[in-house]
């Protein structure tokens, strides 16, 4: 049993009844999140009253979508009901049973976290530097790695135009896997253009400059897609650091046109946005978005399946980002039924 779980004896008994590891993981994550609140109150979740559950949802769980709020409510309700049935709880009636709709009001979505395909393409179209465009498109397609090493290690000879594939390298630069690029993505084209760039315009070409301050820096020739500044004739062409990627993303977020995307334009959320778009296409194809579809997404994005992925890979998020397409898809699904 994990550490930092309040009333660990009772919660262990509860978890032992589940054979499914995914189910155990869901409850374990919830119990970890509830630890500090339970500890400060010296009270188990199954004894929380209405106001205490409201505070827990609002200040600790902070659900970002209706799907997350619904999942939290169902999971909590099942745990409370078990405690009531086994006479561990002080409640006679479950205070949160069938109250999913009520907890929807605690969904916190004050800042845009994800971008649609159309928004991604629009953002890229405003970027002068192909070096910047490549970073966004690469992340969207699931190329990241630990500390974005898959991006910084990519070389021009890793691109296969004939097969429309890219060889991905590990931290040490050794070949790790081959990624098939979707036909609708221009990632390889952007990579080639990025490698050919000879100058990098500061602040997307909007910086004020004078005789003593250039609006651009010269880029060194390199076998790598992302290139650093040309320092002198002898040096240059080395692999850029992860901080170059992070700094360039920060500059993209600072652009006036991207004010509403300050949270979405990070490596984490750009990649998740790409995953959401793949989820849309799979939902259209299969008529559902379950574990099988999410595992296909995980395979492409080189990650293991986790229940927490459903926090953003769900129908609510698809409907929020792609409302017209979802109406069309759901109408088609209803007709086929």
From TrEMBL:
Print the keywords alphabetically: DNA recombination
Q: Which GO terms label this protein's molecular function in UniProt?
A: DNA binding
* One BP term from GO: DNA integration
MrpR C-terminal catalytic domain residues are 114-318
Q: What residues does the MrpR N-terminal core-binding domain cover? A: 6-84
Q: Does the keyword Endoplasmic reticulum apply?
A: no
| Pfam families assigned to the protein according to its UniProt record, in alphabetical order | MrpR_C_cat, MrpR_N_CB
Determine if Nucleotide-binding is one of this entry's keywords: no
User: What is this protein called in UniProt?
Assistant: Core-binding (CB) domain-containing protein
Organism whose genome encodes this protein: Paenibacillus agilis
